[in-house]
Design a protein that fits this description.
The chain has about 350 residues and is α/β, with parallel strands linked by helices. The chain has twelve helices and 14 strands. The strands form three sheets. It has a ten-stranded mixed β-sheet with strand order 3-4-5-6-9-10-11-12-13-14. The chain has a two-stranded parallel ribbon with strand order 1-2. A two-stranded antiparallel ribbon has the order 7-8.
């Protein structure tokens, strides 16, 4: 059966008449968390019966859920074809974040990313992207806190490599009759898919843009992120400089600090030169070590020194706190380690 979550509200108007029925169905799905057509009594009984023969309202199965001591929850989700996606819920005092995947695996082969080791299996559908948000929301947020979260497309996969499905999912999440997510609460992270960035710039509704940089020179990025050989860093930065921004909006640059590779004073100075004059902020991400990868986390002193060089040059820089280290929190680790294990129900630990 087809997933109803693959449909935008306009798609539903072709299934339901009159047109306002599509709004009723959307609100039932996204605002009242209905999971069975029979209980959506806004719709006529005949319409409910007809929809139930062709469409399903099921969210994906949680193959395993891992709960960290710091409150992070990481989900390995089994999809209809038996493949897996990873989703993370990150609780904060003033803001919760749901991190979602856009692909099963990834084709970009960044050397510091476990997902890159998996290779690309397939793109996720719009519905498979949307239901990750719904699953994490319903499992973690209730009542007055139901809508207190942001969404980041920073999980498995390169979002702009799956452009059409990602943008369809964003429109569904943004729909006022759905989750009514403001574009300012949705962030799309790309490793530098230049054509996708340029296409994104032409959209009517544009989410926040984040660039996974991890290296401020071509030689460094060529080594760590093969996509740079196709779209060199100067071309990427020029495209970002042209990107349309809302008032007071900034582009986020994500920079992974790898001991002895991207964490030197010279690396910091190169980053300052690269971003000069740009409305930007930098998230410094100390490497989250994994036994499958050869890289190490820099010392706290090296991290602080790197941050200070940026701040002294008037570049806003923030050190992202590692979360979920006790639950295999690096992207791709869950699929690599646990996909072949039998389901453990809802809660488990590595």
């Amino acid at each position: 059966m087809k997933s109803i979550y693959d449909c935008e509200r306009a798609d539903l108007t072709r299934l339901l008449s009159p047109a306002y029925r599509s709004t009723q169905l959307f609100k039932a799905l996204y605002q009242r968390d209905k999971d069975c057509f029979e209980v959506i009594t806004d719709l006529p009984k005949a319409a409910r019966a007809g929809l139930a023969t062709e469409w399903n309202l099921r969210l994906p199965e949680v193959h395993r859920r891992f709960d960290s001591v710091d409150g992070t929850r990481r989900y390995l989700i089994r999809l209809e074809d038996g493949e897996f996606a990873e989703t993370v819920f990150l609780p904060e005092e003033h803001r919760n974040t749901i991190c979602i995947s856009s692909q099963v695996g990834c084709a970009l082969a960044c050397t510091f990313c476990l997902t890159g080791q998996l290779g690309l299996t397939r793109n996720l559908s719009a519905g498979e992207i949307v239901t990750q948000v719904l699953l994490a929301q319903r499992d973690n947020l209730r009542g007055e806190f139901r809508d207190s979260f942001n969404i980041v497309l920073m999980g498995m996969g390169e979002p702009l490599h799956n452009y059409d499905n990602v943008m369809k999912a964003i429109r569904i999440l943004h729909d006022k009759a759905g989750l009514n997510m403001s574009m300012s609460r949705i962030t799309l992270s790309t490793a530098g898919m230049l054509p996708g960035i340029e296409r994104l710039a032409t959209e009517t509704d544009i989410p926040n843009l984040a660039i996974s940089l991890t290296g401020a020179t071509n030689p460094k990025r060529d080594e760590l992120m093969p996509i740079n050989r196709k779209y060199p860093i100067q071309d990427l930065i020029e495209a970002v400089r042209r990107f349309p921004l809302r008032h007071r909006q900034r582009v986020t640059f994500e920079y992974v600090l790898l001991k002895g590779i991207t964490d030197s004073k010279d690396d910091a100075r190169s980053l300052v030169r690269l971003l000069r004059g740009m409305p930007a902020k930098v998230n410094l991400i100390p490497f989250n070590e994994a036994e499958e990868l050869p890289y190490k986390r820099p010392s706290n002193e090296a991290i602080a020194q790197f941050q200070k060089i940026l701040e002294d040059a008037h570049v806003d820089a923030f050190v992202r706190r590692n979360r979920g280290n006790d639950i295999s929190a690096a992207c791709g680790q869950l699929k690599k380690k646990w996909a072949d294990e039998p389901s453990a129900g809802v809660t488990s630990r590595p």
